[in-house]
Automatic annotation (TrEMBL):
Required for rescue of stalled ribosomes mediated by trans-translation. Binds to transfer-messenger RNA (tmRNA), required for stable association of tmRNA with ribosomes. tmRNA and SmpB together mimic tRNA shape, replacing the anticodon stem-loop with SmpB. tmRNA is encoded by the ssrA gene; the 2 termini fold to resemble tRNA(Ala) and it encodes a 'tag peptide', a short internal open reading frame. During trans-translation Ala-aminoacylated tmRNA acts like a tRNA, entering the A-site of stalled ribosomes, displacing the stalled mRNA. This is SsrA-binding protein. GO terms for cellular component: cytosol. Residues 129-149 are annotated as: Disordered. GO terms for biological process: trans-translation; trans-translation-dependent protein tagging. HAMAP family: SmpB. CDD domains: SmpB. It holds the Pfam family SmpB. Its main location: cytoplasm. Belongs to the SmpB family. It comes from the Bacteria. GO terms for molecular function: RNA binding.
Length: 149
């Protein structure tokens, strides 16, 4: 598994409840650009339309050696999921405050896979608490490291 892009902002802004692995329907220049690492997941999200899952706002830069038939950078791309997974996701987003966000794009056996998560938005005080816990854990690790050296 070769990691291409992570959506760190998603972990900062949301509580991630459940994760799924989805394939992507891509064109030739898109997968070549992904293999070069020219992808950004920051402002993207997943919507369900007509029983199909689509990712919107994922930016894949144009392939450097592409010709005039190069792909559109932010077009909607279809996600490959089982129908029971799509139904489960649709039920989850019907709940108040839930959304589906992309978490991690990676290559698995030569194919681009996207880890998506059902997320619930964090409030400002939740973000502060998470940051405080993270800094306390970091300080504790630093103190134990200094003590045993």
């Amino acid at each position: 598994m070769l990691s291409i892009a992570k959506n760190r902002k998603a972990y900062h802004d949301y509580f991630i409840n459940d994760t799924f692995e989805a394939g992507l329907v891509l064109t030739g220049t898109e997968i070549k650009s992904i293999r070069q690492g020219h992808v950004q997941l920051k402002e993207s999200y997943i919507s369900i339309r007509d029983g199909e899952a689509w990712i919107k706002g994922m930016h894949i830069a144009p392939y450097d050696f592409g010709n005039r038939f190069n792909h559109d950078e932010t077009r909607d791309r279809k996600l490959l999921l089982h129908s029971h997974e799509i139904k489960k996701l649709f039920k989850e987003i019907q709940l108040q405050g839930n959304t589906i966000v992309p978490l991690h794009l990676y290559l698995k056996n030569g194919r681009a896979k996207l880890e998506i998560g059902v997320a619930k938005g964090k409030h400002l005080y939740d973000k502060r608490a998470t940051e405080r816990d993270r800094s306390l854990k970091r300080e504790a690790q630093k103190a134990t490291k200094e003590r045993y050296q």
